[in-house]
Amino acid sequence: MAVHDIVVVGANFAGLGTAHYLLKHTIPALEKANGNSTVYKVTLISPSTHFYFKIGSPRILASPDLIPFSKAFLPLKDAFKEYSADRFSLVIGEAVSLDEEKKSITVRDTYSTTAKNSTVRYSSLVLATGATANSPLWNLKGSHESTMAALKEMHASLPKAKTILIAGGGPAGVETAGELATIYPKASITLLSGSTRLLTRLRPAISAAAESQLNNLSVTVIHKSLKVVENTTGKSTNTTLHLSDDTSRDVDIYIDATGTRPNSDFLPPHWLTKSGHVRTEDKLTLRGPVSSVYAIGDVAGYSLGNIFDINDAVRPMCSSIYQDLSGKKPTAKPFKQNTAETQLVPIGPNGGVGAVFGWKLPAFAVKMIKSKDFMIGQAPKTVSGEQFAKA
């Protein structure tokens, strides 16, 4: 019997959701449509043995007590135990190269001290590798141990810090400033927006409300496109920063929250846009640059970098895979991107700003939805695929 290998690269929100949906819904539908003539197997490639709930990272880095590692880092090994070995396999390692002609991926073991590589072959390929931040505090790059180490260093340094500078006026920077100002009110905290205002994806009035809340917590917010151009030590503690106005600052803690870059270095250049994202030739179906290749989440060219562009895309993309492999009609509606103003930004445990589908939310609503616990209860549901239990 023929075997069709569906390989999913990446095991954060996009990769986990895709793998679970394929196993729960797409593969059973394919076997029914094709009369069990083909065995379909999902292989998930993950650089880490653990999932990291990066949504909670501003509170996780602020204190080890508010969201402990046991809730933020969840093992992947038990997440797929309901599936048999002939249906699913988990490969731990980082994709370092791809051979388009052979349809194979070279994977480097991220937990080995020696250069151990393996080869994974695919029939269909889903690229869900996400994006990497400039600091390991925000997401996984390689094993989860490196992110844990960076967080532990931050936890040890924060209680002694007198000066803290955060670069980046997006959600991560604003949320972190609010968390640190709440826990360490005696520290001098400066936030460089890098723009003319905070939270540029939200309307100016909401940006102003966020700045006002930070000011009430004694956070100094600086605009005028002032940016960090060099971190002289490359470290996040006890360093000197050179700024774009030719001045320098000595700080006890520096937190870089200035953005991300797509994890696409291992892919053929002609698959990528100028920004390094995977080309999605058909935004409605999430088909990628060549046949049998699909892209989802932050690595994909269609994505605006939010969770909606992941959760709302899983079903349409898996439907495209079903259609391509069965020749039958799609099982889901085409992807429809949410472009309305939508962002929730906690500022400390009791404050925050935001909007949902264009509707401005009061601070108490942001608190109830996100500020109180950064939605950490969603972490086990993400790993288990609970949100995609229904087709």
Give the proportion of residues in helices: 25-40%
Separation, N- and C-terminal Cα atoms: 27 Å
How does the helix and strand content classify structurally?
A: alpha/beta
* Number of alpha- plus pi-helical segments: 9
- Major β-sheet, in short? 6 strands, mixed
Strand-residue fraction?
Answer: 25-35%
Radius of gyration over C-alpha positions, nearest whole angstrom: 22 Å
- Counting DSSP E segments of at least 2 residues, the number of strands comes to 21
Strand order of the largest sheet: 13-12-11-16-15-14
| Uncertain stretches | none
**Strand/helix succession:** EHEEHHEEEEEEEHEHEHEEEEEEHEEEHH
How does the overall form come out from the CA principal axes? globular
Averaged pLDDT, please?
94
